């Protein structure tokens, strides 16, 4: 009918024409029917109708749009506003560009959906597309497939993709769209949403969304939340530090589908531990008494929760594991002395670990402890007393707990976390002498392979107890891959604190030998600490020397003059001479490693080549500063020995000449490094020179005759 452009122009140009109103009314009736038919794929009306209207407007005169046209355009754009927008469409592009992109995408997706209608294969295709980062195609595929199929797994893949990319709002919006399209969310859907909320960088928003969905599931949802969902929501609240919401969610547990398990209590105890550490470290304007009160309040909460854990454990309603026990132990370890002592009682109660910290405690016999620590991955467990729930399925754990209802409880299997917790408690309670017993018990009887954290905590405990001999034994037994500069520094620090032990320097020499044989380049700070051990371990040199009567008795017992001379030569040095010999021995150990370390600075690093000499200098500046500090300490030690005549025994002047020569070498090395690092002079030297100039000016002004005349006139 409307083929002629003149007719269309007359229709669009005239406002009062009844024919035009009738035609536009017909358009308004047709447009919603077209949009409802394409509601799953596009927001636009029929493209033919759009082109007809646009051509009519372009050929006609410039008039303002009528109310009817504006209502049609509004309905065309906003009819599907609740859907998720596509990613690859620019927000500033026109509506025609969006429609063109959607049409092309729809054609691609329809070609794929012609091949299969199986939800399983559709979900696999969506997962492969998401792996390639094509979210728009996966979203269009899921929307078109939702018309006649139940594709909840595909929706789960989309929500999981958005959660992993930290797009919480978009994921919740997609979850709501899933329900609008008659796709019923399953248990996996809610698990993905809750776990994604736990990993969200916006914890407060995640808590509000997770608790809202969780409460909706409890009150109105056809699918009631289970223990996994409750644990996921608890994890969200724990990561946000919202204890009020956490205990509110914990109150929804019951004895059926939301029965609390070991993971539930582990999350709650870890949240209490985090809140306790935050109150102790942040201070937040609190005094020490208030901080201790907050810590004790959380410990009281943890003890109340632990009473429920023990009740469920003894009634065979749940199985405890190492994570749960150590979580409770970490909370108690933040308390006072009595709280730390109760940790060892906790381990004895739940893991059957004997109290080796008591006086006269002995290690149990290996043959008698054959059942301790044995694996129990298979059901049933008739003789073993420990079990590792992490290797069992939830159904197997429930069957195992029910089978042990009228028997002895199943103890948790200890591991490296338990060993680290024990060393933390021993260091806090100053019972470091028992650390070796626990280490032997875990490594020899329980057959626990120590990891890096266990070695580190054991070393800290021995360093707290100033046990330099055990520290040296541990360093020699540690795998070379676990030896770090920090480990070596802590070892030498333990030898420094053990200065009352006459063998402290010998133990330090053992550690230094391990460092030079296992490390490619020695640590400069560790070498300075080694030198400090040699300079500080001197008490046994200044003990009361043997009396004259004892020396005469030793000479009388000697049969000949040659034997007396030999005894005199073999007699250990005492006093300053022994101290000087010890310092020279340390310097002799340090000389070759220092040469190797300085040699590494003479050539550029071939692995990461620098683009300029300035960049290479910036890389090596820190190492040069450490080597310079070590060289200064060695020069000071040489001066200490060579300037005191009592530190070098008579008849050993060649030693004096040797170290005087080496001192000159160290001094030249130090001067060369200073010129390289500070070509314009060091900052300290410039400051000293500036102060000297100011002082000279002040003295000159004080001696100036004009200043004297001015003072007399004033």
From TrEMBL:
Q: Where is the composition biased (Low complexity)?
A: 544-562
Identify the stretches annotated as PPR repeats: 151-185
Instruction: State if Iron is listed as a keyword.
Output: no
Residue span of region Disordered: 56-84, 540-577, 682-714
Q: Which UniProt keywords apply?
A: Repeat
**InterPro entries the UniProt entry points to:** PPR_rpt, TPR-like_helical_dom_sf
Give the Basic and acidic residues compositional bias ranges.
685-704
User: Which residue stretches does the UniProt record annotate as biased composition, category Polar residues?
Assistant: 56-74
PROSITE patterns referenced in this protein's UniProt entry, alphabetically = PPR
Q: Transmembrane segments in this chain: where?
A: none
Quaternary structure, from the entry: Binds to mitochondrial small subunit 15S rRNA.
Family from the record: Belongs to the CCM1 family.
Q: Tell me which PANTHER family the record gives.
A: OS03G0856100 PROTEIN (PTHR47447), OS12G0638900 PROTEIN (PTHR47447:SF17)
The free-text function statement in the UniProt record for this protein reads: Regulates mitochondrial small subunit maturation by controlling 15S rRNA 5'-end processing. Localizes to the 5' precursor of the 15S rRNA in a position that is subsequently occupied by mS47 in the mature yeast mtSSU. Uses structure and sequence-specific RNA recognition, binding to a single-stranded region of the precursor and specifically recognizing bases -6 to -1. The exchange of Ccm1 for mS47 is coupled to the irreversible removal of precursor rRNA that is accompanied by conformational changes of the mitoribosomal proteins uS5m and mS26.
State what protein this is by name: Pentatricopeptide repeat protein
What organism is this sequence from? Corynascus novoguineensis
Q: What is the lineage of its organism?
A: Eukaryota, Fungi, Dikarya, Ascomycota, Pezizomycotina
């Amino acid at each position: 009918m409307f083929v002629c452009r003149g007719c269309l122009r007359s229709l669009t140009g005239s406002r009062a024409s009844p024919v035009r109103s009738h035609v536009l009314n017909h358009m308004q009736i047709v447009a919603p029917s077209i949009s409802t038919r394409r509601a799953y794929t596009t927001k636009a009306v029929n493209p033919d109708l759009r082109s007809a209207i646009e051509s009519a407007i372009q050929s006609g005169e410039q008039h303002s749009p009528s109310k009817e046209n504006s209502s049609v355009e509004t309905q065309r754009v906003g009819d599907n506003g609740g859907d998720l927008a596509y990613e690859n469409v620019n927000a500033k592009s026109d509506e025609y560009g969006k429609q063109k992109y959607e049409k092309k995408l729809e054609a691609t997706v329809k070609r794929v959906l012609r091949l299969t209608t199986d939800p399983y294969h559709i979900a696999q295709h969506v997962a492969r597309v998401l792996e390639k980062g094509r979210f728009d195609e996966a979203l269009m595929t899921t929307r078109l497939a939702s018309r006649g199929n139940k594709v909840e797994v595909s929706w789960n893949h989309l929500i999981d993709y958005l959660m992993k990319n930290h797009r919480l709002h978009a994921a919740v919006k997609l979850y709501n769209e899933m329900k609008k399209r008659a796709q019923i969310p399953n248990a996996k859907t809610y698990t993905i949403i809750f776990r994604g909320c736990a990993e969200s960088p916006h914890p407060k928003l995640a808590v509000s969304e997770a608790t809202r969905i969780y409460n909706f599931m409890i009150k109105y949802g056809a699918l009631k939340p289970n223990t996994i969902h409750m644990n996921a929501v608890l994890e969200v609240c724990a990561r946000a530090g919202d204890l009020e919401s956490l205990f509110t969610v914990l109150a929804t547990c019951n004895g059926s589908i939301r029965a609390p398990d070991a993971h539930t209590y582990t999350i709650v105890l870890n949240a209490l531990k985090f809140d306790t550490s935050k109150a102790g470290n942040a201070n937040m304007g609190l005094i020490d008494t208030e901080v201790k009160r907050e810590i004790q309040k959380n410990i009281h909460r943890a003890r109340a929760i632990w009473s429920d854990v023990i009740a469920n454990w003894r009634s065979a309603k749940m199985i405890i594991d190492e994570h749960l026990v150590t979580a409770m132990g970490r909370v108690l370890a933040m308390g006072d002395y009595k709280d730390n002592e109760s940790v060892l009682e906790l381990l004895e109660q739940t893991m059957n670990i004997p109290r080796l910290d008591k006086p006269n405690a002995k290690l149990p016999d290996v043959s008698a402890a054959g059942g301790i620590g044995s694996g129990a991955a298979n059901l049933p467990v008739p003789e073993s007393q420990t079990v590792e729930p992490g290797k069992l399925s939830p159904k197997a754990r429930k069957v195992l707990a029910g089978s042990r209802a009228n028997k002895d409880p199943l103890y948790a299997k200890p591991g490296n976390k338990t060993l680290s917790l024990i060393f933390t408690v021993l260091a806090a309670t100053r019972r470091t002498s028992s650390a070796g017993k626990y280490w032997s018990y875990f490594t020899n009887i329980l057959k626990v392979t120590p990891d890096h954290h266990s070695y580190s905590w054991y070393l800290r405990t021995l360093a707290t107890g100033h046990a330099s001999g055990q520290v040296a034994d541990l360093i020699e037994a540690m795998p070379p891959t676990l030896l770090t500069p920090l480990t070596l520094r802590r070892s030498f620090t333990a030898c420094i604190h053990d200065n009352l032990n006459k063998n402290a320097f010998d133990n330090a020499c053992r550690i230094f030998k391990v460092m030079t044989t296992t490390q490619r380049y020695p640590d400069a700070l560790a070498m300075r600490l080694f030198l400090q051990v040699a300079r500080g371990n001197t008490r046994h040199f200044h003990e009361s020397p043997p009396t004259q009567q004892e020396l005469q008795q030793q000479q009388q017992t000697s049969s000949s003059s040659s034997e007396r001379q030999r005894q005199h030569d073999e007699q250990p040095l005492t006093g300053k001479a022994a101290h000087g010999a010890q310092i020279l021995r340390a310097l002799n150990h340090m000389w070759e490693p220092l040469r190797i370390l300085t040699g590494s600075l003479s050539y550029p690093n071939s692995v990461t080549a620098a683009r300029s000499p300035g960049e290479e200098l910036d890389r090596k500046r820190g190492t040069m500063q450490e080597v310079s500090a070590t060289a200064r300490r060695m020069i000071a030690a040489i001066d200490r020995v060579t300037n005191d005549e009592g530190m070098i025994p008579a008849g050993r002047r060649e030693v004096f000449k040797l170290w005087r020569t080496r001192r000159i070498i160290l001094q030249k090395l130090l001067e060369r490094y200073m010129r390289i690092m500070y070509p314009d002079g060091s900052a300290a030297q410039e400051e000293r020179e500036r102060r000297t100039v100011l002082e000279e000016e002040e003295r000159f002004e004080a001696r100036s005759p004009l200043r004297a005349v001015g003072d007399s006139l004033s």
